[in-house]
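[retry 2/3] HORMA domain-containing protein: previous attempt timed out, resubmitting with same input.
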Amino acid sequence: MAEQRGAHDISLKLQGSIDIALEYLRLAINSILFHRNVYPSEDFYLEKRFGLDLLLTINADVERYINRVLKQVKLWLEKGEISHVVLVIVAQEGGAVLERWSFDTHLVELGSEVPLKSEQQMDSEMAAVIKPILSCDGFLPTIEEPTVFNILAYAREDEEADPVPPPPGWEDTHAYGIEEGKSEEVRLKTLDTKLHKVGIAVSYLDS
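[retry 2/3] HORMA domain-containing protein: success.
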């Protein structure tokens, strides 16, 4: 009975941690699309969260795409099959990769005795990790040309397991790397739920 209860506690904590990581990704992706001018300001609405003014998309197509991506990311996180989620910003004309926002996701520790952070602690943590994204215009080059974005997912490498095949609607693609020798990187604060860590780094074309 105790063993079953312990397994149930672990499952609940793991799901709670995954939900926090997914909410962070959702808010981060929306914030990047707004602050990097991928879509016009009228495509966003203001929502106050964690003491911050967040801009979230009202573009139905973009919202569906993000939700579809995060639904699949959730499945991969539950199975421990994903290592990175990458948002790339690409020039509409010519296809040059201007920025790569890489979210490194990994399970830190698993056990019924591992306490998740309190709701108040997580609210403070979310504010701390999202705030640098909201001020990214201060340390990234201005993007003045029309752009599009894409979201990539990287499977966790396991030499003993077969490669994870792309699910329906996904396909293998190239890395969308920034031109060699012209890239700079900035690492931002890591989200830590106690069970998962989501690190973030942005690479940009330094022209």
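[retry 2/3] HORMA domain-containing protein: DSSP finds three helices and seven strands in the chain.
[retry 2/3] clearing retry counter.
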